[in-house]
Amino acid sequence: MNYFCTAIKQKWSVRLGVRTPGFHPGNRGSIPLRTTFLFITTEINRIMANHKSALKRIRQNEKLRVHNRYYSVTMRNAVSKLRSTENKEEASAMYPKVSSLIDGLAKRNIIHANKAANLKSKLAKHIAKL
Hints:
- By secondary structure, the protein is mainly alpha-helical.
- The protein folds into 2 domains: 48 residues, no CATH class; 81 residues, CATH 1.20.58.110.
- The protein is 66% helix and 5% strand.
- The protein has 5 helices and 2 strands.
- A two-stranded antiparallel ribbon has the order 1-2.
- α4 runs antiparallel to α5.
- About 12% of the residues have low confidence.
């Protein structure tokens, strides 16, 4: 089973090195070819740990990474929306919601507590400046 599902869905283009298994110089000397990330992931999976607990940990980490990324992107979108607001009343109304969202992420260790404090402080200064 392939645990690098995000890489496979996107099929990133990867520049192959000379010693990479998929490398073929052809008639162009040693200029590496480009390939999709699909081939590389199978190579990575072959050298991963074979213990059941290690494989389960890989699955859990991937699921958590996607989950945490969703919430951090949501937080960044909310912060940028508040920063782009020109009306002070709208920004003041949005601030408690964004602040509680940031606090929730800090509480669950998705972002660091100091980062949360810095974000809230900068947003408060921005609202005061409007």
